[in-house]
Design brief:
Layout lengths: L2 E5 L5 E6 H9 L3 E6 L5 E3 L4 E3 L1 E6 L15 H7 L13 E4 L14 E4 L1 H7 L4 H4 L20 H4 L5 H4 L5
Parallel strand pairs: 1-6
Antiparallel strand pairs: 1-2, 3-6, 4-5, 7-8
């Protein structure tokens, strides 16, 4: 599914959204195209032709409420782990608790990871030490104002780079 980067009126990245939703925002004049797709693809209807957008910007500023802690949801966890199994790197379909809940593990960011079905079933309710497995990255809470864009820097359109690169802290 083709994704489009959505910017706030201030050119601050908000999220990515499906091409269909982006085109609807542009046609309703709620957003404007900042960059077109590099392939030069064009969408046609009976009355209108529009170049496929890669980056769009909202015409009006949208205030994003500040949250001290990002809520743990399946979608957010998958986005944090880039939809990849942390154990083998294949496409993730499930959530796994590093320390199983049956052994006192909590349902928190620091204990949850994205996992593929085979790895999740192999691990079952065992600890990583019992299996000889290791994690390449330590799971944690997504940080920063643009946590929804995790993974976009490497996987997104190259035209997104000026908008999603994080300033050095």
């Amino acid at each position: 599914m083709r994704q489009v980067l959505l910017l706030n009126a201030t050119y601050e990245p908000l999220t990515t959204l499906p091409l269909r939703r982006a085109v609807c925002l542009v046609l309703r004049e709620k957003a404007e195209v900042v960059h077109h797709d590099t392939s030069g693809a064009v969408l046609h209807s009976a009355a209108v032709s529009i170049e496929v957008p890669s980056v769009i910007r909202l015409r009006r500023y949208v205030r994003i409420p500040f949250r001290t802690r990002v809520p743990l949801t399946r979608a957010a966890l998958m986005r944090r782990d880039n939809f990849r199994c942390v154990y083998c790197g294949r496409r993730a379909e499930t959530i796994d608790h590093v320390q199983p809940r049956s052994r006192g593990g909590m349902h928190v960011w620091e204990n949850c990871v994205a996992s593929c079905m085979p790895c999740n079933h192999s691990k079952a309710d065992r600890l990583l030490d019992e299996l000889g497995w290791t994690l390449t990255v330590t799971p944690g809470v997504p940080r920063g104002a643009h946590w929804r864009l995790i993974g976009v820097i490497n996987d997104g359109d190259p035209q997104w780079a000026p908008y999603v690169t994080q300033p050095a802290a």
